[in-house]
Write a structure and sequence with these properties.
The structure holds 2 protein chains of 2 kinds.
Chain A: H1 6-31, H2 36-48, H3 51-76, H4 84-101, H5 107-136, H6 140-163, H7 185-189, H8 205-222, H9 224-234, H10 236-241, H11 246-263, H12 265-273, H13 284-294, H14 299-322, H15 328-343, H16 345-368
Helix pairs in contact in A: 1-15, 2-3, 2-14, 3-8, 3-11, 3-13, 3-14, 4-5, 4-6, 4-11, 4-12, 4-13, 5-6, 5-11, 8-9, 8-14, 13-14, 13-15, 14-15, 15-16
Chain B: H1 3-32, H2 40-58, H3 61-85, H4 90-113, H5 145-153, H6 158-176, H7 178-188, H8 190-195, H9 200-226, H10 238-248, H11 253-272, E1 276-277, E2 282-283, H12 285-300
Antiparallel strand pairs in B: 1-2
Helix pairs in contact in B: 1-5, 1-6, 1-9, 1-10, 1-11, 2-3, 2-4, 2-9, 2-10, 3-4, 3-9, 6-7, 6-11, 7-9, 10-11, 10-12, 11-12
The chains are: A mainly alpha, B mainly alpha.
Chain lengths: 369, 321
């Protein structure tokens, strides 16, 4: 029996967790001698007060949609993919290879190829942990953590020893060709008369991310495969009795997850930097965990949470610029969101459940009298 | 490579293995009691920052050590609350703790010292200096044994010796005391421990607390002995290497010692030689960096015996009503 009505489950619990995280964050800001209200105001104007701010917010949000969907798909299969960071790094490698070594006539073709390249590289990087989990029972959390570090080493090697242009000291690839430049929101919105900031990095990848949200929703809730993934995630045992192969579902879910994490690279590598640098991912793979938890693993929730984290990221950058609050404040907020919406979920849920039970019992007692 | 170079590399292996060993034993207590802990990294980082800050302010490294242990314990209690009391997901809690530490250390260090998220350089009584074991000087001239004793065995900070003594201590506590037996049982079959009338919650909190103390010492060692102060993200993945070592050692204390020494040795080599020229092929430094992680994946793939974690690991214990 469901103790709580659905609206409480979907809205109330995450909202209370979020408020708790916000209160603690405010206390942290107070503790370092700054004014939380002024900080929030500055974040709002900095992230949402101009098309420049929106451009950055949406750029970050695009990254987090991809990594959030990646973590969410794995959650649906009962798997915890901490490897989004490494998968996104490898996705960047895929994008760089596609963009550097093939002369593309038009960006749209390059984009399709880059989506495929990044997804394939990300998926391959998730494949080994997935296979070890499925066939050997090695814990996927441990293997994906290890693969993050191995990915960093691989990327470092590729950039320092292989892809670095001759004569350059910088561990980065050469700049991609002008032909693979992705249209920014400025270029996309100018024809319909909207004057969007030219400097902001948000680009056509946002559209790809939105399509990915819809496709993931279709896959999880409207296809037989999605049903299999969800049943497997609810109970491995029950899924086995229903004839759902554990190896197959684990592999499929993780390949999709890794592919989505890898696809983040079309935004940050192809859309923004237009070359592959060492620290391209900047922790977005880990933020995917917070985004998926907050979005309750639903693509629409992931979309909202990604926008929220995009806002936090851009707002945090503004804070670091104008006040003495370092950027790391965002890391603390992110940690608190993960803590309250993920690990301490029951702390919020248990009292609420008790409350709803008490509310339900009262009318019944009266009816019995 | 001459003898003295070898001694120097081994010496630096010991120094680098120490934080790994402490964190690894910390994880061993926690995971043997059925609480997965991927927050070792965060606890070490918090301990490093608060120990260095306290040592810088008070000028007393022992107070620094205490502060470090306190910070680590605080995070341990959060982990305990999330994973024992509220029966949440232990892995997610660990992830949260790592980020919490990564963020809060820089915030606090910046707020206290305004040096871009680092603490001031420590010196004198603010640091754990190396100390010489008896006869280190007089035996130094004896060939082979002399340099080995005076360079490799002697001259480390006290925390190094504590770390190495913690190995037999851990073994004794886990395998020769009633507490240890119960602690291991609670990680394998908590229901049986509960039936015997022993508190599962109490045992698990005890294990998490011991984990906090050891991580605290590890972090304090990093910031006050290995280096002279805290810098942002100074643990640099050591908590995860310790986790790797724990799996590699299959959750056993003596194997943990050898594994951590091996991983420390790999780090020492990667530090000293950048790319290693083996004549036929050159081993890139990146491979050396990634080797501990690769070794763990190989072990997890089932090469060289299966690494089986404690059976109840990661599962919150729910009493039957």
């Amino acid at each position: 029996m469901d103790v709580m009505p659905k609206w409480a489950e979907v809205i109330l619990v995450p909202l209370i967790s979020l408020i708790l995280a916000a209160i603690l964050s405010a206390l942290v800001i107070l503790a370092i001698g700054e004014d939380p209200v002024a900080a929030v105001r500055l974040m709002i104007t900095g992230a949402l007060g101009s098309t420049y701010g929106w451009g950055y917010t949406l750029y970050y949000a695009t990254n987090f949609m991809f990594t959030g969907l990646a973590v969410a798909i794995a959650f649906h299969a009962g798997l915890f993919n901490i490897g989004g960071e490494g998968q996104a790094m490898l996705g960047g490698l895929g994008v760089a290879l596609v963009c550097l070594f093939i002369p593309w006539p038009h960006w749209s073709m390059a984009l399709i190829a880059a989506v495929v390249g990044s997804a394939v590289f990300g998926a391959l990087w998730a494949a080994i942990p997935a296979y070890l989990q499925a066939s050997r029972g090695s814990h996927i959390v441990i293997t994906t953590i290890m693969f993050n570090f191995i990915a960093a080493a691989v990327l470092n090697y590729m950039l320092v020893n292989v892809l670095r242009p001759a004569g350059s000291m910088d561990p980065a690839t050469a700049r991609f060709d002008e032909a693979v430049h992705l249209p920014s929101l400025h270029e996309m919105l100018a024809p319909i008369g909207i004057n969007f900031s030219k400097a902001a990095p948000a680009n056509v990848s946002l559209v790809v991310a939105l399509i990915a949200c819809v496709l993931v929703w279709l896959l999880i809730w409207r296809t037989p495969l999605g049903l299999e993934i969800r049943s497997f995630g609810k109970s491995h045992r029950a899924a086995r009795y229903a004839g759902i192969g554990a190896v197959r579902i684990t592999m499929i879910a993780m390949l999709l997850s890794g592919g989505l994490a890898g696809m983040m690279a079309i935004n940050n590598v192809m859309g923004e930097a237009e070359r592959l640098v060492l620290n391209a991912v900047e922790g977005a793979g880990f933020i995917g965990i917070a985004v998926a938890l907050m979005g309750r693993s639903h693509p629409f929730g992931v979309f909202l949470a990604a926008i929220l984290f995009g806002f936090l990221y851009q707002g945090g950058a503004e804070l670091a610029l104008w006040t003495s609050i370092p950027r790391e404040l965002i890391v603390v907020i992110q940690a608190l969101v993960i803590l309250f919406t993920g690990a301490l979920d029951n702390m919020v849920r248990m009292p609420l459940e008790r409350m709803f039970l008490a509310m339900r019992r009262r009318p019944n007692v009266q009816a019995g009298e | 490579m001459d003898f003295l170079t070898l001694i120097q590399i081994l010496d630096s292996s010991v120094r680098l293995a120490t934080p790994l060993l402490l964190a690894c034993l910390a994880g061993l207590f926690s995971e043997r009691a059925g609480i997965f802990d991927i927050g070792l990294e965060g606890k070490m980082l918090a301990a490093a920052m608060f120990s260095a800050a306290t040592a810088a302010i008070t000028g007393n490294v022992w107070l620094g050590l205490l502060a470090g242990i306190g910070a680590s314990m605080f995070l341990s209690i959060i982990h305990g609350l999330a994973s024992i009391t509220f029966r949440g997901n232990q892995l997610i809690s660990g992830v949260a703790i790592n980020f919490l530490a990564a963020g809060i250390t820089v915030l606090v260090a910046q707020d206290w010292f305004s040096q871009g998220g680092r603490t001031p350089q420590l010196s004198g009584a603010g640091r754990f200096e190396g100390f010489d074991l008896p006869f280190a000087d007089s035996l130094g001239s004896v060939p082979i044994f002399g340099p080995t004793y005076s360079e490799l065995v002697s001259g480390h900070s006290i925390l190094v010796y504590i770390a190495f003594l913690a190995v037999p201590a851990t073994w004794y506590v886990l395998f020769r005391t009633r507490f240890g037996l119960r602690l291991r049982a609670v990680g394998e079959n908590p229901a049986a421990v509960d039936t015997a009338g022993v508190s599962v919650v109490g045992l698990r909190y005890a294990a998490v607390a011991i984990c906090g103390v050891l991580c605290g010492i590890a972090g304090a060692y990093l910031a006050t002995a290995l280096q002279a102060g805290f810098v942002k993200d100074m643990t640099a993945g050591r908590g995860f290497i310790a986790l790797a070592a724990l799996i590699f050692a299959k959750w056993r204390p003596w194997s943990a010692l050898w594994t951590c020494l091996l991983f420390g040795f790999l780090q020492a080599i990667a530090l000293r030689f950048q790319n290693i020229d083996l004549g036929v092929i050159t081993v890139p430094v990146q491979l050396m960096d990634a080797l501990p992680y690769i070794l763990v994946v190989v072990i997890l793939a089932g090469v060289g015996g299966k690494a089986i974690p404690p059976r109840a690991g990661g599962e919150p214990y729910v009493k039957e009503r």
